[in-house]
Amino acid sequence: MIKDIKKGFTPALEGMPVNPHLFSESVALLQHLIKTSSFSGNENVAADVVQQYLTGYGIKVKRKGNNIWCTNKYYDEAKPTILLNSHLDTVMPNEGYTKDPFCPEIADGKLYGLGSNDAGGCLVSLVAAFLHFYSYQGLGFNLCLALTAEEENSGENGIKSILPLLGKLELAIVGEPTLLQMAVAERGNLVIDCMSNGRSGHAAREEGDNAIHKCLRDLQWFKTYQFPQVLKGLPTVKMSITTIKAGMQHNIVPARCEFTVDIRHDDSFTAREILEVIKKNTTCQVSPRLGSLGASSVPMDHPIVKAGIMVGCKTYSSPTTSDQAWLSVPSVKIGPGDSARSHSSDEFIYLEEIKKGISLYIRLLDTLPLMLINNPNKYKNEIRHINN
């Protein structure tokens, strides 16, 4: 059986033709989603659209709130399960739009519309890949397709609300716009609100204790402090002061100065360890916001990474966060589109990117068995299912 798999395998760098019907259906689905308002927390109609699309293929879909999921036709509890995940929700359109954000216009090979790039193109490409494998009896693993809510606001009713319902997962592929590069690490996000306290007084006299002056030292520390470890050239912890507020009027010394720090970090430090360093080196009051997202990474020798490299993917560490942060299993982030277009005016995705996205997801899953076979001691269980 191993011999047969190797014989049938060809490096996918050359690409593979995508079923024209599957591609055209994917574009039509994305156009329908663009027409449908799906701001975080209000994805119910978008969830209806995708649910109806999948049931049209005879697939039994489960749903909780605005999250939907399904498994391949020949699901077997004894087999390992791979999660395919992307999100239904979008941000609000910004004021710079010159096109109707809910009009799925196609021009010059681009599909315009809110959510087309983040992450509609990834979502429909993953759906297409799932449909490609749905009725295949020879899979050595299960596929679980989960299209989820509230990714953009890290909401409580998104993917983390259904993870316990998905069963045991071995691996996850998260669809986000990455230019089809594979993110093998993702930085976490910790947001803290800080406050320096002084004492108010009249600005014309030497009265009070100016809170702005008191916070200057802390602001300088956040700007210059370097955490000791570095991952692939990126700062281990990057701290950015993003808002500041103080004072009531021109002739009163402010008694309070508030500022916010956005912190991006890899998994070298936990959020708790970062907070300990901050509190040790500053004098301000520090209050972490709820919903901080953890960092993640997958070893470079993991079969999914090797499979990605085999099909021509470049690997990198992602500075942005996603629903990958809620997962406790090895995961990678990859998909068509460009993160730089996310949340931008007149958002778009190239139709060719969707076609390549479908192809890449299929090739990745096609190649994974070979990578498992090349790790016989570590992945005995998965190999047993492939050989059966």
Please characterize this protein's 3D structure.
This protein is of the alpha+beta class and 388 residues long. The protein has helices spanning 2-8, 20-35, 44-55, 116-133, 211-224, 271-281, 303-310, 351-373, 380-387; strands spanning 62-64, 67-71, 81-87, 106-107, 110-112, 142-148, 171-174, 182-186, 188-197, 201-202, 230-231, 234-235, 237-246, 252-253, 256-265, 285-288, 296-297, 315-318, 331-333, 348-350. It has a 6-stranded mixed β-sheet with strand order 1-2-6-3-7-19, covered by helices on one side. The chain starts with a helix and ends with a helix. The model is unreliable at 1-14 and 382-388 (pLDDT under 50).
Distance linking N and C termini: 8 Å
Strand runs, count: 20
What amount of the residues lies in strands? 15-25%
What's the overall average pLDDT, rounded? 88
- Strand order of the biggest β-sheet: 1-2-6-3-7-19
Q: Compute the number of helices.
A: 9
Counting copies of identical and different chains, the oligomeric state is single chain
Indicate the percent of residues in helices.
25-40%
Shape: elongated
Largest sheet: 6 strands, mixed
Uncertain stretches: 1-14, 382-388
SSE sequence, one letter per element: HHHEEEEEHEEEEEHEEEEEHEEHEEEHH
Radius of gyration: 24 Å
Query: Which structural class is indicated by helix and strand composition?
Result: alpha+beta
